[in-house]
Amino acid sequence: MTTESNPLTGDSPAGADSSRPAPPPGCPAHGRGPGGLSRLHESADLKELYEELRAEHGPVAPVLIHDDVPLWVVLGHAESQQLLRSPAHFCKDSRIWSALGDGLVKPDHPLMPHIAWQPMCAHAEGDEHRRLRGAIDVAVAATDFRGLRRHVNRSVQRVVNRFCEAGEAELVGQYAEHLPMAVMCHVLGMPDEYNDRIVEAARDMLRGTETAIASNAYIMDALQRLTARSRAEPLDDFTGHLTRHPAGLTDEEIAQHLRVVLIAAYEATANLLANVLRQVLIDPRFRSQLNGGQMTVPQAVEQLLWDEPPFSTIFAYYAKQETELGGQRIRKGDGLLFAPAPANVDPRVRPDPTADMMGNRSHLAFGGGTHECPGQDIGRVIAEVGVDALLMRLPDVELSVPESELRFTESIASRHLVELPVNFIPRPQQDVLQRPSHENDAPPRQDWHIGVSRPVAAPVPRVEAPAPMPMPVPPPPPATRPEPRGAWQRLLRWWRGY
Length: 498
Ligand code: HEM
Hints:
Elements: E1 38-39, H1 46-57, E2 60-65, E3 69-74, H2 77-84, E4 90-91, H3 98-101, H4 112-115, H5 126-141, H6 145-161, E5 168-170, H7 172-176, H8 179-188, H9 196-207, H10 212-232, H11 238-244, H12 251-282, H13 284-291, H14 297-307, E6 314-319, E7 323-325, E8 328-330, E9 335-338, H15 340-344, H16 376-393, E10 398-399, E11 408-410, E12 415-417, E13 421-423, E14 449-450, E15 469-470, H17 487-496
Parallel strand pairs: 1-2, 3-9
Antiparallel strand pairs: 2-3, 4-6, 5-13, 6-9, 7-8, 10-13, 11-12, 14-15
The protein binds protoporphyrin IX containing FE.
Protoporphyrin IX containing FE binds next to helix 5, helix 12 and helix 16.
Region (Disordered): 1-39, 462-485
Organism: Streptomyces edwardsiae
């Protein structure tokens, strides 16, 4: 394989100029590498780069990652579906990746934690995947979702109690990163392990800091103790279902799967929650649509799963045989990046990327096919109740810095809001067993305006855009929430669990 030929196929890829010399190091010329291919990891704006790649190569584009390792990035929505749903052609077993076999990927490659094959369901295929995944599916299916909603609500009250008297908070670090960890510790069966230390350890691991190994050891220690407890006396929790499952998972398999579940759930759900809260806080139209009943909280969550999928890409799929995808010739052993972020804005499914998707769930934020996320409904419940209950508790919450000061960190894998500083009228702590409510202390805001609704995406029924009008000022909230009148409202409260 020469550096001037297409690093993926050895041929000239469609649109790539193989005669183009690599730009000198440090050249701002667009982060291009051998063969004129774009270096994903050097991009300052991946959204923009994906659109350039789509224009240059179509729905499947050749790119480079760290150490100039070649890879295809799948940008099309239909092509992503094809990638995820063709187990005869593509799998997640990195041991067949030719770049690894050829020694192009070194053991110290920065993406090695994602690349290295591990005996767990995220990398397994066929019967082995069915065995491991079957146990996880049973554990998820045993979730009492109404009880979960109630528990998430209580966790919201607990977390908000920690800052509600201050009148200000930073909602990424103090809220969005805490709620999923509090809930997942409960779901897995180790509620006592939830504290600041475990949130800090998870953060640390994901940032890959110098103490990441120690943080991983801290989390693994908690999960191994949980596995041992559950083996001795399995309860009716997630871990109990894994332990008892007829697939006969070993202690090591249980602990490693608990780790994947805890960390994936923590990272993705915290990211989703932060993104929805940010949108509510920066976009008065979004907030007024929510307040005015034109959009439900689940629809708001779904909208953000389209616009900002918590995992921008998933590393990676590998071709089991020579095939074709999106007009590109894929060779056996090629690596392909599944990329929900660009696939969700494929102009063929979203001609207008600003359109309201109206709760449409055909985005790719949870993947698809055999590896589709088994915990998506748990993630949705945490995000939905996490937004709904926070806004009930702090209805006057608003951003305390200009939107332009909000910063993101971005890697190939994900894009994270760094901080979301807010203020609100200070409130006393609340009994966590109470339904979320707020004191009659926040004057209703007069300055929200309903603008023109987001246009509606083509495949989804269009909603008439209301003419701009001032937001109707709601009557001042009562000091305590009245008992709901009517069978429907009582049913709704029962269903929500709060
Ligand atoms: C908003 C929250 C979440 C998002 C956006 C998300 C997204 C994803 C994605 C994109 C995948 C990979 C699909 C692929 O490889 O093609 C995945 C896999 C997985 N997720 Fe989630 N996830 C979330 C929450 C959760 C939760 C709460 C759990 C816990 C039950 C969970 C457990 C898993 C597991 C075990 C896998 C591996 C499945 C397999 O390979 O068969 N996730 N998730």
